[in-house]
Amino acid sequence: MQRIYLDCNASTPIASEVVQAMQPFLTDFYGNSSTTHWAGKPARQTLDLFLQVDFS
Q1: Which of 25, 27, 28, 38 is 20 to 30 A (C-alpha) from 19?
Q2: What does the buried/exposed string (b/e) look like for 9-43 if buried means 16 or more CB atoms within 10 Å of the residue's CB?
């Protein structure tokens, strides 16, 4: 029997493509982008790049 998850009010399954795209941000760019130390700088640079993109 195949199970179907219908409780999407609580959470939703994450598509494998999304997990793959987000992996660097969970393992390499995890620092607080508001700080100035070594872990925060790459996160800030990445955030600044995404803030310039027009996703519309």
Answers
A1: 38
A2: eeeeeeeeeeeeeeeeeeeebebeeeeeeeebebb
SS3 assignment, position 11? coil
DSSP 5: -
Digit-coded pLDDT (tens) for 13-42: 899 999 999 999 889 888 999 998 999 999
Domain ranges of the chain: 17-51
Cα–Cα distances in angstroms (integers) from residue 50 to residues 9, 28, 46, in the given order: 28, 16, 6
Cite the DSSP H helix spans in the chain.
16-27, 40-51
